[in-house]
Write a structure and sequence with these properties.
Low-confidence stretches of chain B: 1-5
Distance between the termini of chain B: 45 Å
CATH architecture of chain A: Alpha-Beta Complex
Number of helices of chain A: 6
Order of helices and strands of chain A: HHEEEHHHHE
Structural class of chain A: alpha+beta
Helix content of chain B: 40-55%
Shape of chain B: globular
CATH class of the largest domain in chain B: Alpha Beta
CATH topology of the largest domain in chain B: Aspartate Aminotransferase, domain 2
Helix content of chain A: 40-55%
Distance between the termini of chain A: 30 Å
Strand order of the largest sheet of chain B: 2-8-7-6-5-3-4
CATH superfamily of the largest domain in chain B: Type I PLP-dependent aspartate aminotransferase-like (Major domain)
Strand content of chain B: 15-25%
Oligomer: heterodimer
Number of helices of chain B: 15
Largest interface: A-B, 21 and 19 residues
Mean pLDDT of chain A: 90
CATH architecture of the largest domain in chain B: 3-Layer(aba) Sandwich
Order of helices and strands of chain B: HHEHHEHEHEHEHEHEEHEEHHEEHEEHEH
Low-confidence stretches of chain A: none
């Protein structure tokens, strides 16, 4: 992909303008702030767990189209998944956006973010919500997740 | 040079800058990020290559021809810089690795040894992180307090209640001469007077001012004035600390090592004279010589001409941007430099700058190392376009077109 406009596919523009699950979850204590200090993007991820399953997941905050679309798609994919399933999806996604290696059919909607790996400055945008969600699922006792650690 | 219109001159000057004629993936480079770092003219690059290829010896040491030539060129730059900023003596010109190191030198070698618990460091809400964080570190180690001079909504400093901020507790004032975000030019001479009347020492961060406008440190009267080579057509890795001789003389050294000593015995050492007391170790010789070439290049063109041209460019850019629907521009100071921060509707600055890059336009997106301003403006980031003597009115037209295209593409 030579042209970054190709990355801003319709699906990403749509999730940027109409983010899914863009709300707070009030009846949970599983929430965490994610911050990219390089650009000032801040998002907050909320998760409700039932047994070992994600029964609800949402986010709030502000960011660029890539970080918002990635967060939005993440919530639609992880809802209903077990924690182990969610971690596996994250591993595949992280590999895709950092190396470009992925089974695009298996990645489903996430495949629209495959081109991010060609733009190193934007990998952190795509990963912000995911790192925040994984920190919640891994029970990390953090006040905030930062992309610069 | 007289008689040429500024636009023609910029077109001619562009031939001096190899990066402006190199072919980029997207076509010609439209470089609108000179507030971050400037492009380098051929003469600066050549001066450094000449040092490495023709006389690359060390300075202040060798008794042989190339070392003597290196020393002569290095010290010649000190004279050029002193004259460029109106310093009365070369003893007051210390080479550092940049503005950040210049500020840290003052923070470590002066502030940490001078400030007491309860003393106040007065800075402003428009400082770059390099003029905030070193003082926070000083405050932590000395018990001094940091206070912030507030901003007006137009991006100028609010000096109306100055007596509340400049008090007998104020021991140090640190202020940016020209904002790297808002473009605001601060009334430094007035602030120097307020600081001195309160009995405080004042440091002025001139990183964004010295490249664009003539500065006379003797006339300004600041105790410390700092700037970087790479923002004024020079190389990275070199900067300047101008200091008041009386204060510099009393200060302990910053770094210990070679060249900064007079005598070294097993148990103690004595310090070299100014400015060498503050230049420990082998300095960035090629970079200093490159800075000398940049100073000469700027002086030959004339800072007044550069400033006049940038004023026209900035006015044209402000007009061009304001014609685009949904553009918000931050900072509206009457006296301003060639830097414009803005947001375009709901398009995030990262998305905007990435799309502009597709048209070969380099702008900066983010908080510009000035998070307190972003907090004050209630935003997380802006896009910033900044201009220098090699930019043209045509490039600003292209910027405007590219922004319009990006807004449409992102759906507003």
């Amino acid at each position: 992909m030579d042209n970054f406009r190709d990355l801003y596919q319709q699906l990403i523009l749509d999730h940027n303008q109409n983010p899914r699950n863009f709300r707070e979850i009030l009846d949970t204590d599983l929430f965490l702030d994610g911050h990219n200090p390089l650009c000032g993007d801040r998002i907050k991820v909320f998760i409700r767990k039932e047994d070992k399953r994600i029964s609800d997941i949402s986010f709030t905050g502000s960011g660029c189209a890539i970080s918002k679309a990635s967060a939005s798609i993440m919530t639609t994919l992880l809802k209903g998944k077990t924690i182990d399933e969610a971690k596996k999806i994250f591993e595949d996604f992280h590999k895709m956006i950092t190396t470009g290696e992925a089974d695009l059919e298996k990645m489903g909607k996430l495949a629209v973010l495959a081109g991010v790996h060609q733009f190193p400055a934007r990998v952190k945008c795509a990963a912000l919500a995911w790192h925040t969600a994984m920190s919640i699922l891994n029970d990390k006792k953090l006040d905030i997740v930062s992309t610069e650690t | 040079m007289t008689g040429m219109t500024p636009a023609i001159r910029a077109a001619k000057l562009r031939e001096d800058f190899p990066l402006l004629s190199s072919s980029q993936e997207q076509g010609p480079l439209i470089y609108l990020d000179s507030a971050a770092t400037t492009l380098k003219p051929r003469c600066v690059i050549d001066a450094m290559v000449r040092y490495y290829t023709e006389y690359g010896g060390s300075v202040h040491r060798g008794i042989y021809r190339i070392a003597e030539q290196a020393t002569a060129e290095y010290e010649n730059t000190r004279r050029e810089v002193a004259s460029f900023i109106g310093a009365e003596t070369t003893d007051s010109i210390i080479f550092t690795k940049g503005t950040t190191e210049s500020i840290n030198l003052v923070a470590y070698a002066w502030a940490r040894n001078t400030l007491k618990p309860g003393d106040e460091i007065l800075i402003t809400e428009m400082e770059h992180h390099s003029n905030i964080v070193p003082w926070q570190m000083v405050a932590k180690s000395t018990g001094a307090l940091i206070r912030y001079l507030p901003l007006n909504s137009d991006g100028t400093l609010d000096l109306n209640r100055s007596e509340q901020y400049f008090t007998p507790h104020t021991k140090l004032v640190a202020v940016i001469h020209q904002s790297n975000v808002l473009g605001t030019v601060n009334p430094v001479k007035e602030i120097v007077k307020l600081a001195h009347d309160a009995g405080a020492v004042i440091l002025v961060d001139g990183a964004q001012r010295v490249p664009h406008h003539s500065v006379n440190v003797t006339d300004l009267g600041a105790d410390f004035y700092v700037f970087s080579g790479h923002k004024m057509l020079g190389p990275t890795g070199v900067g300047v600390l101008y200091g008041n001789l009386e204060i510099l003389d009393k200060m302990e050294p910053f770094h210990g090592g070679g060249d900064m000593i007079r005598t070294v015995s097993m148990n103690a050492s004595t310090w070299n004279a100014l400015p060498y007391k503050f230049e420990a170790g082998t300095p960035p010789i090629a970079q200093v010589i490159g800075l000398g070439a940049a100073v000469k290049y700027l002086s030959d063109i004339g800072l007044d001409r550069i400033a006049a041209y940038e004023t026209q460019l900035t006015a044209y850019a402000l007009k061009t941007l304001r014609e685009i629907p949904d553009i918000e521009i931050y900072g509206d100071a009457r006296e301003r430099g060639a830097v414009i921060s803005f947001n375009a509707g709901s398009v995030h600055p990262h998305d905007l700058s990435q799309l502009l890059d597709q048209d070969g336009i380099a702008v900066r997106a983010g908080h510009h190392c000035a998070q307190p301003i972003m907090t004050r403006l209630g935003i997380s980031a802006t896009t910033r376009a900044s201009f220098y003597l090699y930019n043209t009115f045509e490039e600003i037209d292209l910027l405007g077109e590219s922004i319009r295209k990006a807004i449409t593409f992102m759906g507003g």
